[in-house]
C-alpha cells in the first residue's frame, strides 16, 4: 500500500550508520567524516549491500554537499577571502598544473597516446571541496588563513578544471579527423565562468551589505532562511549552467548571506539542515568505493600508483602555491586540496562513455578519487594542528589538550604571518 | 560535466514557487499551503511543465511530509491525546464507515458489481493527515481539542483504511474463483497494527519521560536532534512495514520526543528542516493534478460527483464522531478529516494495476483525492475560527482581528466545553 518503504529504509540506514560511525570516529580522535565515509563502504554494495546508490540517494547527497558549502560560505567573509587572494590564486593554479602535468607524463609512460594521457590526467585535477570543508567546519577552524586559502583556491581550481576538461575532450581524436580545438571557444567559457563568480561574488555581497533589510519584510519569521535557501538552490543550479560545480554556487550564496545582518541567525538555522542532510553526501561517497576492484594484483598496483601520484602532485602544487603562508601552513593547504571525490568520478564516467578509458582505468580512477577523500581528513586534521602549534606531535594528545584554541601566539606562527 | 543540473533546477523551481505563492496566499488571508498546492498545479505538467514528478521529487515530498508529522507530534502531548481518546476513536471509525458505505452504494448505483464498488469505495476512505496538520500548524492551533481529535483520529483512520483495503483487494474475483477472504488473516493484521501504535506510543513515551538523559550523553551538541531524527526515519519506515502510512510512525516519533526535556530545543531545531522540506510535499501534490482530465464533460461530471461525495461523507462521519465536542468544533473536525491526498492515489494505482479500474475511473479518483486536499485548507481555517469565536463571519476580518488569540471565554464556547 505504501510505496515509500524502500527509500525510507535506505534513509534510515544511511542516517543511523552515519551517526554511529561518526561518534566512534570522534571518540578515536578522528574527524567524524572519516567514520561516515567508512559507514558508506560498509553498508554499500561492496560489503553488506544494505543500500544501493541510485537517483534518489545521489540527489540527497547533492543537496547535502550543497547545504554544507552554503554553510561554509556563511561562515566566510569576502574581505577575508580577498586578503588571501594571491595565495589562493597560486594554490588554485599550481594545484591544477602540477597534477595535470604529472599524471599526463605518467599515463604517457604507461603507454597511452598524448591525447588519451591528458584525458586521464584531467581526472587527477579537480579538487572536491566537500570533504575538506567538512573537516574545517568540524574542527571549527574556518576562520584560519589556511581555510580561507583552501576555499578561495577551490573556486579557482574548479574553473580551471572545468576549462581543462573541455579542452581535453575536444582534443580527442584530433589525430584522425583534424583538431576540434577552437581557442576562442575556450576563452569565452573561461570569461563566462570567471565573470559568473566575480559578478555574483562582488555584486551579490555588495547588495547584501547595503540592503539586508529585504530579509525583514516578509510576514513569516522563517522567511529570511527561505530567501537565502532559494538563493542557494538558484546559484547552485546556475553555476552548473556555467560548467562549474553546484557547490561553487552554494558557496557564493553563503558568502552573500554572510554579509547580511541576519548572519548569526542564519548560521544557527542552517545547522539542523546540515545535521539531516550532510551525512547522505559522505555515506553515499563511501558506498561508491568498489572493494571488488582490489581483488586483482594488477588493479591494486595501478590503484596504489594512481593514488600516490594524485596525493603527491596535488599536495606539491598546493604547497608551492601557499608557501607565502609559511612551511607548516602550506602543508595544511596542500593536503586540503587533495580530495577529488565525485569530480574525478564524473571525469572517469565521461571517459568511459567516450570510449577513451577501459573498464579497468575507469575503476582505478573512481577508486583513486574516493581514496584521496578517505586519506585526507586524518592527515589534514593533523597538519592543521601542527601548523597551529609547533609542539604538536601526537594528534590524539593535541586535540585532547586544546580542542578549540584559536591561533596561539607561538613564535613560529608569528613568523609565518609576516608574509 | 555536472550531472546534477536538472535536479537542482527542479529543486530551485519548486522551492521558489512555494515561497512566492505561499506568501501571496497568506496576504490573501488563506493558509500558505493553498498557495503551495496551486504552485504545483501551475509549474507541473498540467500547465507550464517546468517540473516532472519522478522518483527524486517523490522521495523529497515523502521526507517533507514525514518531517511535518514529526514536528506535529513534537507539539503534541500523549496526555492531551488520551483525554480526547473516545472522540478521536469515534471520528476515526465513523470517518471510515460513512464514506465507505456511501461510496460503495454510489458506485453500485453507477453500475459496478459489489466487489468492484467496494474497491472504488476504498479510495474514498483514508484521510491523509499532511494537509490538515500543516493548516493546524500554520494557524498555531495544535493545542486545541479539535486538533488533538483530528490527529488521534488520523491514526485510527489509517489503521482501519489499511485493513479495509486488504479485505477489499482479497474480495476481488470472489465470484469466479471462490472467496480469498480469510478472516483470521485480517485479525492478525489489525492486531499487529494496533499493537505497533500502542507499544511504540505508550512504551516509547514512557521511556522518553523517564530516561531523557540519554539525549545528553553524546559529544556533539546537535546529537539530540540526530537521535530523534534517526528515531523519526526508523519509525516512519517501520510503520510502513505494518501496512501503515510512514507519517504515522513519524508522528509517533514526534510524540516520543515531545516527552523528553529537550522538547523546546528540538521544536526550535526542527523548524528550519520544515522550511526546507515541506514545500516539496505540497508542491509535488499539486503537480499531480491532471487538468487535461477536465477536458471532457463526462469526466468533469463524474469528478464533481465523486468529490462532493468524498467531502460530504467524510465530513458527516467526522462530524458525527466529534459531536461530543459541540456542534461547531465537530464541524471543524469533520472538515479536518476530508483530505485524501496521496492515499487515495495509492488505492487508485492499485485498482488500475489490478485491472479493476478503467483509466477514466483512475483519473477521476486521483483528481478527487487531490481536490479534497485543495478545498480543505480554506474551509478548515474558517471553521476553526468559527468554532473558536461565535462572532466570526468573515474569515478575512477574523484573522486580521485576532491572529493568535487562544480560546476566548465566550459563552457559546464554554457551553460546548461542558461535554
Low-pLDDT runs of 5+ residues of chain A are 394-419
Q: Summarize model confidence as the mean pLDDT of chain A.
A: 81
Order of helices and strands of chain A: HHHHHHHHHHHHHHHHHHH
If classified by CATH, what would the architecture of the largest domain in chain A be? Up-down Bundle
Largest interface: A-B, 59 and 57 residues
Shape of chain A: globular
Question: Quick one: biggest sheet of chain A?
Answer: none
Oligomer class:
homodimer
> Helix amount of chain A, in percent?
over 70%
Strand percentage of chain A: under 5%
N-to-C CA distance of chain A: 66 Å
Structural class of chain A: mainly alpha
Q: What is the C-level CATH assignment of the largest domain in chain A?
A: Mainly Alpha
Number of helices of chain A: 19
Describe the structure.
The structure is a homodimer of 419-residue chains. By secondary structure, chain A is mostly helical. Chain A folds into 2 domains: 7-48, no CATH class; 62-284 and 296-390, Na+/H+ antiporter like fold (Up-down Bundle). Chain A has 19 helices and no strands. Chain A has helices spanning 5-27, 32-43, 55-74, 78-83, 85-109, 114-122, 129-138, 145-171, 174-177, 183-210, 223-241, 246-257, 263-287, 297-321, 327-336, 341-353, 359-388, 395-401, 411-417. In chain A, helix 3 crosses helix 7 (129-138), helix 7 packs antiparallel against helix 8 and helix 16 (341-353) packs antiparallel against helix 17 (359-388). Residues 394-419 of chain A have low confidence and may be disordered. The interface between A and B is large, with 59 and 57 residues.
Amino acid at each position: 500500500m505504501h510505496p515509500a518503504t524502500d527509500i525510507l529504509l535506505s534513509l534510515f540506514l544511511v542516517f543511523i550508520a552515519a551517526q554511529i560511525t561518526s561518534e566512534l570516529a570522534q571518540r578515536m580522535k578522528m574527524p567524524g567524516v572519516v567514520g561516515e565515509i567508512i559507514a558508506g563502504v560498509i553498508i554499500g554494495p561492496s560489503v553488506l549491500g544494505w543500500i544501493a546508490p541510485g537517483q534518489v540517494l545521489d540527489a540527497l547527497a547533492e543537496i547535502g554537499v550543497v547545504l554544507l558549502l552554503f554553510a561554509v560560505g556563511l561562515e566566510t567573509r569576502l574581505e577575508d577571502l580577498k586578503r588571501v587572494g594571491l595565495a589562493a590564486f597560486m594554490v588554485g593554479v599550481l594545484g591544477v598544473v602540477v597534477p595535470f602535468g604529472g599524471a599526463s607524463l605518467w599515463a604517457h609512460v604507461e603507454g597511452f597516446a598524448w591525447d588519451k594521457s591528458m584525458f586521464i590526467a584531467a581526472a587527477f585535477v579537480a579538487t572536491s571541496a566537500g570533504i575538506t570543508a567538512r573537516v574545517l567546519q568540524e574542527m571549527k577552524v574556518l576562520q584560519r588563513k589556511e581555510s580561507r586559502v583552501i576555499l578561495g583556491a577551490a573556486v579557482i581550481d574548479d574553473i580551471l578544471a572545468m576549462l581543462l576538461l573541455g579542452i581535453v575532450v575536444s582534443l580527442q581524436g584530433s589525430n584522425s579527423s583534424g583538431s576540434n580545438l577552437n581557442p576562442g571557444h575556450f576563452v569565452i567559457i573561461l570569461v563566462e565562468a570567471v565573470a559568473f563568480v566575480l559578478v555574483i561574488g562582488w555584486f551579490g555581497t555588495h547588495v547584501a551589505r547595503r540592503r539586508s533589510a529585504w530579509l525583514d519584510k516578509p510576514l513569516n519569521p522563517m522567511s529570511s532562511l527561505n530567501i537565502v535557501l532559494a538563493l542557494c538552490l538558484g546559484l547552485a543550479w546556475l553555476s552548473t549552467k556555467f560548467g562549474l560545480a553546484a557547490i561553487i554556487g552554494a558557496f557564493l550564496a553563503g558568502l552573500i548571506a554572510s554579509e547580511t545582518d541576519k548572519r548569526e541567525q542564519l548560521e544557527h538555522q542552517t545547522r539542523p539542515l546540515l545535521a539531516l542532510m550532510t551525512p547522505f553526501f559522505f555515506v553515499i561517497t563511501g558506498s561508491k568505493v568498489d572493494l571488488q576492484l582490489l581483488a586483482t594484483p594488477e588493479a591494486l598496483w595501478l590503484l596504489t600508483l594512481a593514488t600516490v601520484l594524485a596525493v603527491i602532485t596535488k599536495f606539491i602544487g598546493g604547497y608551492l602555491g601557499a608557501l607565502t603562508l609559511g612551511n607548516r601552513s602550506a602543508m595544511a593547504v596542500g593536503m586540503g586540496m587533495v580530495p577529488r571525490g565525485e569530480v574525478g568520478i564524473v571525469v572517469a564516467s565521461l571517459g568511459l562513455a567516450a570510449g577513451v578509458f577501459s573498464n579497468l582505468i575507469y575503476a582505478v580512477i573512481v577508486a583513486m578519487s574516493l581514496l584521496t577523500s578517505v586519506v585526507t581528513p586524518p592527515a589534514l586534521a593533523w597538519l592543521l594542528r601542527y601548523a597551529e602549534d609547533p609542539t604538536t606531535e601526537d594528534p590524539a594528545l593535541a586535540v585532547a589538550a586544546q580542542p578549540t584554541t584559536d591561533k596561539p601566539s607561538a613564535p613560529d606562527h608569528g613568523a609565518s604571518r609576516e608574509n
